[in-house]
Amino acid sequence: MLEMRPDCERCGTGLPAQLPGGFICSFECTFCAACSEAVDDVCPNCGGELLDRPTRPREMLEQYPASTQHKFKG
């Protein structure tokens, strides 16, 4: 199951699990659309391809909550 990290690792923008706009690599490094575009859809951490992160329906968030651990080091 995806961790659904709460923010962009590059700029800190919030990325709620139930909304589109997050991009992830195979290691679940997470970026907003603007940062993903800025790095040409290549993860700056591992070199993997950044793809659209799926959303998690609100009703599933209760049973399977998104991560609350922030990765942005700002």
Count of the separate structural domains: 1
What is the count of helical runs?
A: 2
Shape: globular
Task: Give a short account of the largest sheet.
Answer: 3 strands, antiparallel
Largest sheet: spatial strand order: 2-1-3
CATH class: Alpha Beta
- The residue-averaged pLDDT reads 94
Strand content: 5-15%
CATH architecture: 2-Layer Sandwich
Pfam families: DUF1272
Protein name: DUF1272 domain-containing protein
Please characterize this protein's 3D structure.
This protein has 74 residues and is an alpha+beta fold. The chain has one domain (1-67): Herpes Virus-1 (2-Layer Sandwich), CATH 3.30.40. It is 16% helix and 11% strand. The protein has two helices and three strands; from the N terminus they run ββαβα. The chain has helices at residues 33-38, 58-63, and strands at 22-24, 30-32, 51-52. The protein has a three-stranded antiparallel sheet with strand order 2-1-3. Strand 1 and strand 2 form a beta hairpin. The mean pLDDT is 94. It comes from Aurantiacibacter marinus. This is DUF1272 domain-containing protein. InterPro entries: DUF1272 (IPR010696).
Structure characteristics:
alpha+beta; 74 residues; globular; three-stranded antiparallel beta sheet; Herpes Virus-1
How do the strands and helices of this protein lay out in sequence?
Elements: E1 22-24, E2 30-32, H1 33-38, E3 51-52, H2 58-63
Antiparallel strand pairs: 1-2, 1-3
